């Protein structure tokens, strides 16, 4: 299945397109060819009968608008996959559901507007689990087809891993971007909550919902983030190496032996490379501390679907329906109380981060490699505390034995420190990845 895993460097693709080494029309044609070749197996894209003509037309228009390399925008001609809960003009939003697409329709998302302004081409919608909740979609893991590709941004992660597109957009409420990126062996970036606008994105739980980026390498994420995030300022990055913190305690106990052993080896490599790594007792009452996140999540989910669920309950997957019913059992006062306790949790985490001088928290990105089977998308617990308070998170694919499933290394920055996180991650990537799967140039 080596032909299924061929991630492409976004920075290389963008450079080739901007300089004219490859024309947008030819790159778009290659993209359609690759989708035709492998996506019947991987199933990362939503089927679109008119994709070839639509993308060829978009590429032709792009070529006419950027005649000189110096005039071309940063993502000129780059095809991008868009998770199918994000509205794109001219493409229906199905959200992995059986509901009529016209019921879910809405204005094009700001993140799509920014992609188009940066010169990108929309390759199509990527598969999502139903309404980005828990029920998996049909996407398969390009590394091993019988293993899950992860959470509800699985289509976006698999599309990048399979080399269908060099950039895909996903979302994360709890762990639905970081985990599939880790399982599929690519880089996933969940910015600080609110850095990329959420308008035009079907809501799950707005307190947590975050638009994120999936690429092959950290430098690729930095390029995309500079185009998509509000007030992006590379000068916020600072010289020197960050202090890395390991949140020891019950939370780290969720990592399976394979993941923890690999993580310990990664930490040893970082220490050898000169990084200062501190272990900090954290989350001593983890399950009690994060219980309120589930209350918030389910209550807001039920509110978002109040109208649709009342009219189309019988069309929902039972797993999604059960989550909505649980949320309906909560009161507005329960939600308000949970939000208040969430703020207290955020304050405690920020205080511990400052007290121990931690610049980045580091953890396994998932409890282990992608589990066998497609009925479950795996466990999101390693993302839970960080998503719960809106911190920026990144997963880096790490070196692994030949034939082994990918394992991701998660880095978590301070709120709003997205630029520093990505800057520091460039060197972390160098230490952690004698890459198990090489990226392909254009």
From TrEMBL:
<feature type="region of interest" description="Disordered">
    <location>
        <begin position="134"/>
        <end position="153"/>
    </location>
</feature>
<dbReference type="InterPro" id="IPR036928">
    <property type="entry name" value="AS_sf"/>
</dbReference>
<dbReference type="Pfam" id="PF01425">
    <property type="entry name" value="Amidase"/>
</dbReference>
<dbReference type="InterPro" id="IPR000120">
    <property type="entry name" value="Amidase"/>
</dbReference>
<protein>
    <submittedName>
        <fullName>Amidase</fullName>
    </submittedName>
</protein>
<feature type="domain" description="Amidase">
    <location>
        <begin position="32"/>
        <end position="422"/>
    </location>
</feature>
<dbReference type="InterPro" id="IPR023631">
    <property type="entry name" value="Amidase_dom"/>
</dbReference>
<dbReference type="GO" id="GO:0003824">
    <property type="term" value="F:catalytic activity"/>
</dbReference>
